[in-house]
Design goal:
Elements (H helix, E strand, L loop, with lengths): L2 E3 L47 E3 L3 E10 L5 E9 L2 E2 L6 H10 L6 H6 L3 E13 L7 E5 L9 E4 L4 E2 L19 E4 L2 E9 L19 E5 L12 E9 L1 H5 L8 E5 L2 E5 L3
Parallel strand pairs: 1-2
Antiparallel strand pairs: 3-4, 3-13, 4-6, 5-6, 6-11, 7-10, 7-12, 8-11, 9-10, 12-15, 14-15
Keywords: Signal
Length: 269
């Protein structure tokens, strides 16, 4: 168990427990699922396990995994999805300013206010653990924009947005706010997910829950014609916190996309 949650003050009390969602080995028929009753419940000696991730009070979701580069170097992947904020609170000011600057001519502060945007901060980190992690390896950071919701994506420091489409509704021009973000090499960055009408409830959903209609994590499959990076994902685990459940992560479409090509979870499909 590699993800731990802190207590949520005020709204939810008590520690939040891990929901381990990594690939599991099927148990032989008739054996107990209780780790204490399973002789080989601990990882094989020498096996890689993700680094521990402690989730803050405002976390909706946490995700960890291990990346392996073509040269054999390994790195830890960590993603924290923070609770969605209404655009008018001071804590959302960086996201509002970044969106107005990057989306000039598309979305400005009057649009953000008039359409009742919320902003969900998504922190992504790739930390080398063994070997030299290549600087030229790029990975797609999720979420991407959801055109049905009119959501926007703006990369904060550490991430780079590319002029490629992740949805076929776009032709020759991809609006800045719809351009996906990538992480080049190792490092860390924050993605700002803006969702119009989410304060009142976007597309007839409950308030502050439309974040759950997106996927979160990373994948080696790059957008548009950029191809794929030769990175292998393994040992993916995720935790939806009680706060995440309270704010929407219980929808029928919620699913894990854990494979050698990516490590993500959400309700985009």
């Amino acid at each position: 168990m590699r993800i731990r949650s802190l207590a949520v003050t005020g709204l939810l009390a008590g520690a939040l427990l891990l929901t381990g969602c990594g690939p599991a080995t099927p148990e032989p028929s008739g054996t107990s699922s209780d780790p204490a009753a399973t002789p080989d419940a601990t990882p094989t000696e020498g096996a890689l396990v993700p680094a521990e991730l402690v989730l803050p009070d405002d976390a909706l979701l946490g995700l960890v995994g291990i990346l392996t580069a073509p040269n054999g170097a390994t790195a830890d992947l960590a993603v924290i999805v923070h609770a969605s904020l209404p655009h008018m609170v001071p804590e959302a000011a960086d996201a509002v300013a970044a969106t107005a600057a990057w989306c000039a001519g598309e979305v400005d502060e009057s649009v953000i206010s008039g359409r009742g945007f919320t902003f969900t901060f998504v922190d992504v980190t790739v930390t080398p653990r063994d070997g030299d992690w290549p600087d030229d390896l790029s990975l797609l950071v999720l979420p991407v924009a959801n055109p049905e919701l009119g959501s926007t994506i703006v990369a904060g420091a550490g991430l780079r947005q590319v002029e490629e489409a992740t949805d076929e509704v776009f032709a020759d021009y991809v609006p800045h706010c719809q351009q996906p973000a990538v992480l080049d090499g190792a490092g860390a960055g924050t993605l700002y997910l803006g969702i119009p009408q989410d304060i009142a409830g976007a597309n007839d959903n409950a308030s502050f829950t439309a974040w759950a209609l997106h996927d979160f994590g990373m994948t080696a499959v790059l957008p548009g014609d950029l191809g794929a990076s030769d990175v292998e994902f393994s040992m993916c685990e995720s935790e939806v916190t009680l706060l995440g459940e309270e704010f929407g992560a219980v929808i029928e479409s919620w699913a894990e996309g854990f494979s050698s090509a990516g490590c993500f979870v959400g309700g985009a499909s």
